[in-house]
């Protein structure tokens, strides 16, 4: 074991600090898995959350142009000996960068059959709305 740690330390020194940590995303799947779809002024995010007994077990937060998901995936199966384990379980925290800022006051989220579906709407600031400005004619005053 000490030889492995020495080898890893030498590789990190040669290629840069935490060389193997840069590959973690390739080796370990992101949980929960998501699909993100963009429509004109809307985003639809489908989140794979199997085994969730109640939607309150997942927190969904929107911060400007970031969707943050935190929670726990638990698949409780009693008895028997597990032969294969391909479904990622455990606690998660995932931040998803969105292509544009979204409204925090207009979010719709539903959960059914293991899919959490989050509908987001583009934030359009009031600064883009054109308003006519009344011009006072000073000679009349």
Automatic annotation (TrEMBL):
Recorded family membership: Belongs to the small heat shock protein (HSP20) family.
Residues annotated as domain SHSP: 25-138
CDD domains: ACD_sHsps-like
Lineage: Bacteria, Bacillati, Bacillota, Bacilli, Bacillales
Species whose genome carries this gene: Halobacillus amylolyticus
Listed name of the protein: Hsp20/alpha crystallin family protein
Domain of life (superkingdom): Bacteria
Pfam families found in the cross-reference section: HSP20 (PF00011)
